[in-house]
Specification:
6-stranded mixed β-sheet, 302 residues, two-stranded parallel ribbon, 11 helices, Glycerol-3-phosphate (1)-acyltransferase
Length: 302
C-alpha cells in the first residue's frame, strides 16, 4: 500500500500505472479485433470475441491491482453475491463521477459479463480508449436533445437502429448492458436547472433502457439496479487517483425484467412509453430514498 505517500505523488503513480495498463493491453486487444474483422468464418469470429472479452477483463483486473496498491478506500458493498457470469443483465446506475465506471468494473468484473456502455459518438476519438471501445463493440450513439428530435424525428429512428444492431451482437454471448439513466453526471447546477423532483438524482431518461429492453428483453435474466454513494461527496477522477476517496457505498438489487414492457413498442405506442416512464420513476424514487438512508447512516457514525 502506497497511501502513506503524499497525495499528489500517489496520484502520479496511480495515473502512470493506469496509462501503462492501457498501453499494454490495448495493442493486444486491437490485434485480435482486426483478426475478428478480417476473418469471415462466424465460429472463428465468436472465438476471437471471447478472447477480446478475456483481454478486457484482464485489463480491469490490473486496474483493480493498482487501485489496491495506491488507494485506501473502504468498500461497503451489498447485493453482489450470487450473480451469474454466464447470463445476460441490464444494469442501471446513478451517475456522479468518472470514478463510477472504475468502481463498477472493479466490483462486478467476472461476477457478471463485461459491462457494455452506450457511448457518445465523440468518445470514439479518445486516445487509446476509443479504439479499445470500438474493438469491444461498444455502441457509439449520437446524443440529441428532445427539442432537436422533435424537429428531426428521423434521428430517433437512427438511434433505434444503432441500438438494434448493437443488441444483435450482444445476444450472441452473455453480456451486461450498462445504462446511466440520468444521461450525464449529477451536479448541483444540473439538478437546479432541471428542477429535479429527486433530492440526490437528476431526472431519469427512459429511452435508452427501453430500446435495450425492446431489442433483447427475452435475453436479459435480470435488471441490476445499482446505487453508488460517496459519503464524503462525489470525487473527481484526480482525487480518486490521489487516494482521497475514503469510502464508497454500493447497493445492488436484482430485479425481474418487466416482460410486459420489454415486448411493447416504446417508440410507437404512447401508452407503453408512459408505462416505461412510470417504471423508471419508481426505480428512481426508491434509489433517491436509499441514497438518503445511506447518507444519514454515514453521518450518524461520524
Amino acid at each position: 500500500m502506497l497511501n502513506f505517500l503524499p497525495a499528489p505523488l500517489v496520484g502520479v503513480i496511480a495515473a502512470t500505472l493506469l496509462a501503462i495498463n492501457c498501453l499494454f493491453w490495448v495493442p493486444i486487444l486491437l490485434v485480435f479485433a482486426v483478426l475478428k474483422l478480417l476473418v469471415p468464418i462466424e465460429a472463428v469470429r465468436r472465438r476471437l470475441a471471447a478472447v477480446l472479452l478475456f483481454i478486457a477483463e484482464a485489463w480491469i483486473t490490473c486496474n483493480s491491482a493498482w487501485m489496491n496498491l495506491t488507494q485506501r478506500t473502504e468498500w461497503d458493498v451489498q447485493g453482489i453475491a450470487g450473480l451469474d457470469y454466464r447470463s445476460w443483465y441490464l444494469v442501471s446506475c446513478n451517475h456522479q463521477s468518472w470514478v463510477d465506471i472504475l468502481a463498477l468494473q472493479h466490483l462486478l468484473n467476472r461476477r457478471i459479463p463485461l459491462l457494455k456502455f452506450f457511448l457518445k459518438q465523440q468518445l470514439v476519438w479518445v486516445p487509446v480508449m476509443g479504439l479499445a471501445w470500438w474493438a469491444l463493440d461498444f455502441p457509439f450513439m449520437r446524443r440529441h436533445s428532445e427539442e432537436y428530435l422533435k424537429k428531426h424525428p428521423e434521428m430517433r429512428k437512427q438511434d433505434q437502429e444503432t441500438t438494434r444492431r448493437a443488441c444483435e451482437k450482444f445476444a450472441l454471448m452473455p453480456t451486461s448492458v450498462m445504462n446511466f439513466l440520468e444521461g450525464t453526471r449529477f451536479t448541483p447546477a444540473k439538478h437546479a436547472r432541471q428542477q429535479s423532483p429527486y433530492r440526490h438524482l437528476l431526472k431519469p431518461k427512459a429511452g435508452g433502457i427501453a430500446l435495450a429492453l425492446n431489442a433483447m428483453g427475452d435475453r436479459f435474466r435480470s435488471v441490476l439496479d445499482v446505487t453508488i454513494v460517496y459519503p464524503d461527496g462525489a470525487p473527481t477522477f484526480w482525487q480518486f487517483l490521489c487516494g482521497k476517496v475514503r469510502r464508497v457505498v454500493v447497493r445492488v438489487q436484482t430485479l425481474p425484467v418487466p416482460r410486459e414492457l420489454a415486448t411493447g413498442d416504446y417508440a410507437g405506442d404512447p401508452e407503453v412509453r408512459e408505462a416505461f416512464q412510470r417504471w423508471v420513476q419508481q426505480l428512481w424514487s426508491a434509489k433517491d430514498a436509499q441514497i438518503e438512508s445511506v447518507l444519514a447512516a454515514s453521518a450518524a457514525k461520524r
